[in-house]
Design goal:
Strand content: 35-45%
Number of strands: 48
CATH class of the domain at 24-40 and 584-836: Alpha Beta
Radius of gyration: 30 Å
Number of helices: 12
Strand order of the largest sheet: 41-42-44-43-45-46-47-48
CATH topology of the domain at 24-40 and 584-836: Rossmann fold
Shape: globular
Distance between the termini: 49 Å
CATH architecture of the domain at 24-40 and 584-836: 3-Layer(aba) Sandwich
Helix content: 10-25%
């Protein structure tokens, strides 16, 4: 009893001391977090070069957007490596002022495009909606009749709508032509407004974004001025009050890997017609029709959309599809906006172990009107059959067979005359084949070869196959590094251009570098060099590349390099982050430590508050997401790391770590997740934090919290259940707490099929009785991504085990509702309350938006 009283008094004194001396969780802390995020917006300049290549591909120009809305135009001779101002900005400003009758400032010359002039020492430039000829000696301007490519403006509407697509990285430049300040918001997938800054009258505001993201512009009172959708290649969002109510143009559909041929044969003689789930052949010459199949039913039938004609029009392949059980989940919307009474929503949602829809190919002779039988011995249990393609000579067709359980992947070829099936490529794994993110199959029809991606030697690499014999001709890439993706296959030169991780052993293995290699494995050339992660844009003829690289602690550097050997031609820009550092912003620190085995390097970052004092002790928070489909520690430079920076300002040291079981390392590193998602790399994360605290004693490992959403929600709860001696507080959002309750494709890939006892062992529900520490569960009642019942079943288990916890159910909330302003505030409060031991004193202050780089929600067991 004495010991218990002593421990209680010690804890009480510690809490009082923390509250009085540290004053964490005050309104000032919350305000500083919001102010710092806002202050970091638009504070880094020259981060990216968007090259505009001129005919001949030896010269290009680009624009630098600078502080205060200033801009400069740069001209580059790529052959000579010469970089200079494209023109005298002051002289051009005077010439434009005279030409258009309005004052033009030298640092804001309104030039949209540049091109060679028709005579030496002259330029064509697009400005103010027309083309001008500029004499670089006299700086006289003459209007021309040229009218191409003048518009870079994005369509503007007045109809706010949620973001529905996240495409390639791009940018959007807001140009305020009104006389008042405009406010910029990103509209999330749920339609939530997230403020990203303001743009003054006559000013410009450059925002990183993704194609498909929707942006709302309002006046200071909140009235809608315009709505824009970002596009690939960037564009200007002109704010001038001229937005219309016309809907945005339809976006292009994403291509699918397996696309059916049209029901009409290539020679125009036949058309496939569907009648009562069976296929009929209609002769377009004679107008006669005959049944091709008679075995189709509503439950196991054919469709016109899954017919693939041979090039010679004599044969065709059709997929016959047997329906699965068609599981649905039901969600109750308690507080709909358009009525008083709740609504019931039904969502199609297959779960691990369900009887799935299965499609198999059937071969037909169109001339004879008969089926050629195919044995399905080599593809009897498909998860999917895709990528059906005929050989150019129509002698056979191939398809990709992904066996359920994801341990067998085959390219199969079927003889068009006999229906005999042969194996072209077979990939097997005792654990899993990462088909969803490590798949590449490129057919070389002219030479009868296939380029194939595999982890069979323990690392993700490329192999060259003889498609006729099914034999490996040679391994194309090899070594203790991984191919991250293939960008271009040059069949004429027999070269592959690809991205690699770990190929420079002295650097972080997650950094992406660009490379080229010959089909036979010779001539491996690393085209990028800098100690950071890289993105590259090639000149149209691929003779030059513009390489932008950075680290979390190093603003971007942009270089011009020669594509033949990667040689540096010249440095184009080094980002200017002076204004960012003036805000008090602190860059994350990169940290590496050994994992659970004492040998493997584990990589992560440390984020400290802007008012960090090395003489104080800080609780540690881990932002976790351990989905095996990727790796998650930021590698590129960003001014603001969203929630991590936000909660750090409340008096925490925040860490993010990629433990074993995540991707982009060796196959052995990745395999730790196999039938073991409950592990979440937590032993590696704990070892990493202990090593970090040994170096930085300000990290107080007696007060460690953890938070995450989706798969990260599962991970956060698992931390308390399995490692409650280390983690003390957790907040879990929309967690897939039992993998049997979550979506089928993600969970079967990592946990296997059939559903075995490993599912129960990985489940947080199974281990609920082991809960130690403080837990807050957050879930949206309309989460269509992870069944909300997964959270509620965990709640049920915790109640049965008589465990204390907190629960926040958000009416109308969807997946990731903890990232809403209310959810983020509740999460932050929970950590302040239970790791600092004080009550938050924000007085209703809502945290700021989480990021100035809106991103697609994490793909997870949760997505």
């Amino acid at each position: 009893m004495t010991n218990r009283i002593s421990a209680w008094l010690t804890g009480l004194l510690w809490s009082l001391a923390a509250g009085l001396a540290c004053a964490q969780g005050s309104k000032a802390d919350y305000e500083r977090a919001a102010r710092l995020r806002e202050a970091t917006v638009n504070t880094v300049f020259k981060q990216r070069v968007r090259a505009n290549w001129l005919p001949g591909n030896t010269n290009f120009w680009y624009r630098n957007d600078l502080a205060g809305g200033r801009r400069e135009f740069i001209w580059v001779d790529a052959v000579r490596g010469e970089r200079r101002l494209a023109f005298d900005h002051a002289k051009l400003a005077r010439a434009l002022t005279q030409a258009i009758g309005k004052p033009v400032q030298p640092e804001r010359v309104p030039v949209d495009r540049l091109d060679w002039g028709p005579k030496p020492d002259s330029l064509l430039l697009a400005s103010q909606g027309r083309w001008w000829l500029l004499d670089l000696h006299s700086y006289t301007l003459e209007p021309t009749n040229r009218a191409d490519g003048l518009s870079t403006s994005l369509p503007a509407t007045t109809q706010p709508r949620p973001t529905r697509r996240t495409g390639e990285e791009t940018s959007i430049t807001f140009v305020n032509r009104t006389t008042a300040e405009a406010v910029i918001y990103w509209l999330t997938e749920t339609g939530e407004r997230r403020r990203y800054g303001t743009v003054g009258p006559g000013q410009r505001f450059d925002q990183h974004t993704y194609a498909g993201h929707v942006w709302l512009v309002t006046d200071a009172a909140g009235k809608t001025l315009a709505v824009f959708e970002a596009v690939e290649g960037g564009g200007e969002a002109i704010i001038d009050g001229a937005a219309t109510d016309q809907p945005a143009p339809p976006r292009q559909a994403r291509p699918r890997r397996s696309r059916s041929r049209a029901p009409q044969s290539p020679d125009g003689q036949w058309r496939v017609v569907l009648r009562d789930y069976n296929l009929h052949l209609h002769n377009l010459t004679t107008d006669q029709e005959r049944a091709l199949t008679t075995d189709g039913t509503a439950e196991d039938g054919y469709t016109e959309e899954q017919v693939y004609w041979a090039p010679d029009s004599r044969k065709l392949v059709a997929l016959k599809t047997r329906k699965g059980e068609g599981r649905k989940i039901y969600l109750i919307e308690s507080s709909p906006k358009d009525q008083l009474q709740p609504k019931l929503h039904a969502v199609d949602y297959e779960k691990p172990g369900d009887r799935i829809t299965v499609s198999k190919p059937h071969l037909f002779d169109a001339v004879e009107g008969r089926e050629i039988p195919i044995s399905d011995v080599l593809f009897e249990n498909p998860w999917s059959i895709t990528d059906i393609r005929w050989a150019p000579d129509s002698r056979e067709f191939t398809f990709l067979y992904n066996q359920r359980g994801h341990q067998v992947l085959r390219v199969l070829a079927v003889d068009a005359a006999t229906g005999k099936v042969r194996v072209v490529i077979e990939e097997r794994s005792p654990t899993f084949i990462c088909y969803s993110s490590k798949f590449f199959c490129h057919y070389l029809d002219q030479t009868g070869e296939i380029i194939w991606m595999s982890e069979r030697d323990g690392w993700n690499h490329l192999y060259l196959y003889d498609a006729r014999t099914g034999q490996v001709k040679n391994q194309i890439t090899r070594g203790p590094w991984v191919v991250r993706g293939v960008d271009h296959v040059d069949e004429a030169a027999r070269q592959i251009w690809f991205r690699a991780g770990g190929i420079r052993p002295e650097q972080d293995p997650y950094y992406v570098h660009y490379c080229r290699v010959n089909f036979d494995g010779t001539g491996l050339t690393i085209l990028t060099e800098g100690d950071g992660t890289h993105t590259v844009e090639f000149s149209p003829d691929r003779q030059f590349l513009i390489d932008t690289w950075s680290r979390v602690d190093l603003p971007p550097v942009t270089e011009l390099r020669r594509a033949s050997d990667g040689r540096l031609i010249c440095e184009l820009e080094r980002a200017d982050a002076t204004a960012l550092f003036r805000t008090g912003w602190r860059p994350p620190e990169r940290f590496v430590a050994k994992g659970r085995d004492g040998q493997t390097d584990i990589y992560g970052i440390i984020i400290r508050p802007s008012n960090f004092d090395p003489n104080r002790k800080y609780p540690v928070l881990e932002d976790i997401y351990a989905g095996p489909q990727s790796a998650y520690v930021p590698k590129a430079f960003r001014p603001w790391h969203g929630t991590m920076n936000e909660v750090a300002e409340l008096g925490f040291i925040v860490v993010k770590i990629d433990g074993m079981g995540t991707s982009h390392r060796s196959k052995a590193f990745h395999d730790v997740c196999w039938k073991n998602l409950g592990d979440a790399g937590l032993p590696d994360r704990i070892a990493w934090m202990k090593a970090a605290a040994a170096k930085y004693p300000e990290m107080d490992l007696s007060r460690v919290g953890i938070y995450g959403g989706s798969a990260g929600g599962q991970n956060a709860v698992s931390a308390l259940l399995r490692h409650g001696d280390f983690y003390k507080v957790a907040v879990a959002d929309c967690g897939c707490h039992d993998n049997r309750m979550d979506k089928i494709w993600w969970n079967e890939q990592w946990m296997g099929w059939p559903v075995g006892p490993e599912y129960a062992e990985a489940s947080n529900v199974t281990h609920a009785h082991k809960l130690q520490g403080r837990l807050l569960l957050i879930v949206g009642e309309l989460d269509r991504n992870v069944d909300p019942a997964s959270t509620m079943q965990l709640v049920n288990a915790l109640i049965r085990a008589d465990k204390d916890f907190d629960l926040l159910i958000v009416p109308g909330g969807g997946h990731g509702i903890a990232e809403s302003p209310y959810g983020r505030r509740r999460r932050a409060d929970f950590f302040v309350r239970h790791l600092w031991g004080v009550e938050p004193r924000h007085e209703g202050l809502t945290p700021a938006p989480v990021s100035n780089r809106p991103t697609e929600p994490a793909t997870s067991g949760a997505d």
